């Protein structure tokens, strides 16, 4: 007769499913998807293979159920960022969040590796579902850049693809001297994300200035724009004169000129400032 003290508590169906799923996660973290197996999982979960089949069907059905947890991984990254940001800050936060989350998410790293190395029904579905769930965001950013020459879809693909590769490659060696296994390497990537984001969104700002100039030309014509530029240069000259009055050279008066002493102490250099403002 079994000793009641050593008998393992009876597990509920929910407990059994959770134990099997948790065991699968541990095996996949160590072995990857391609090398994981039913026997490794049931042994770690301490269940019979018949129990596994009763709850999940065959091996392929189980892997399909398991990977569906990650169908919305990218969407979950997006949902985790701060809401109500401007478009530029949102884009920046998404790429930073993507890098940080993937760098710490071993299961997702293994799933991406599996998609690259093994062509089967499950890897095709997981890759296509992630693309399907990402496209609404891509289209939204494409509308933001519609009036510019920025192809945000292709730029995002290169940026995100680079993030994927750096993280999936990190166990092999550094890349371009950057090791994302340590904090210094991670900071380098965050710097690069900010740099590329600034470069991308500055194109919109540059386009906005050009659109303003084109609008002015269409409304007032070239002569009108020239007149506005002249008035602006005059106003800037007056402002600069007042701000830098004490730093400008001053007239010492001209003894040979009529009433030359009256000009003594007046600031000089306004003409040069005016010319510079016109040039700007």
Which key phrases capture this entry?
280 residues; mainly alpha; 0% strand
* Terminal-residue CA separation: 96 Å
Helix content: 55-70%
**Total strand count, please?**
0
Secondary structure tally, helices: 11
Mean pLDDT: 81
Specify the biggest β-sheet: none
Low-confidence stretches: none
Oligomer: single chain
What does the overall shape look like?
Answer: elongated
SSE pattern, N- to C-terminal = HHHHHHHHHHH
Computed CA radius of gyration, to the nearest angstrom: 33 Å
- Helix/strand/pairing category: mainly alpha
- Roughly what fraction of the amino acids lie in strands? under 5%
Question: What is the topology?
Answer:
Layout: H1 13-31, H2 38-45, H3 49-56, H4 59-67, H5 73-79, H6 87-104, H7 106-117, H8 121-144, H9 152-168, H10 183-243, H11 270-279
Helix pairs in contact: 1-2, 1-3, 6-9, 6-10, 7-8, 10-11
Brief account:
The chain has 11 helices and no strands.
General description of the model:
69% of the residues lie in helices and 0% in strands. By secondary structure, the chain is mostly helical. Helix 10 (183-243) packs across helix 11 (270-279). The protein is elongated.
């Amino acid at each position: 007769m079994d000793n009641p003290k050593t008998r393992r508590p009876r597990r509920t169906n929910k407990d059994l499913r959770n134990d099997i799923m948790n065991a699968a996660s541990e095996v996949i973290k160590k072995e990857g998807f391609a090398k994981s197996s039913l026997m490794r999982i049931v042994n770690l979960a301490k269940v019979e293979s018949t129990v596994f089949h009763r709850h999940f069907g065959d091996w392929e059905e189980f892997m399909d159920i398991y990977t569906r947890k990650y169908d919305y991984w990218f969407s979950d990254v997006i949902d985790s960022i701060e809401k109500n940001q401007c478009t530029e800050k949102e884009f920046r936060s998404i790429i930073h969040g993507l890098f940080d989350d993937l760098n710490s998410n071993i299961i997702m790293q293994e799933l991406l590796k599996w998609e690259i190395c093994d062509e089967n029904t499950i890897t095709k579905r997981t890759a296509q579902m992630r693309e399907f769930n990402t496209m609404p965001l891509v289209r939204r950013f494409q509308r933001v850049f519609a009036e510019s020459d920025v192809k945000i879809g292709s730029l995002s693909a290169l940026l995100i693809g680079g993030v994927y590769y750096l993280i999936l490659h990190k166990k092999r060696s550094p890349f371009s001297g950057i090791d994302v296994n340590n904090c210094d390497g991670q900071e380098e990537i965050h710097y690069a994300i900010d740099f590329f984001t600034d470069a991308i969104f500055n194109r919109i700002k540059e386009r906005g200035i050009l659109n303003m100039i084109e609008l002015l030309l269409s409304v007032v014509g070239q002569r009108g724009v020239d007149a506005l530029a002249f008035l602006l240069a005059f106003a800037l000259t007056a402002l600069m004169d007042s701000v830098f009055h004490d730093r400008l050279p001053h007239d010492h008066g001209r003894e040979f000129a009529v009433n030359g002493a009256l000009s003594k102490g007046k600031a000089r250099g306004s003409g040069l400032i005016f010319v510079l403002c016109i040039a700007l």
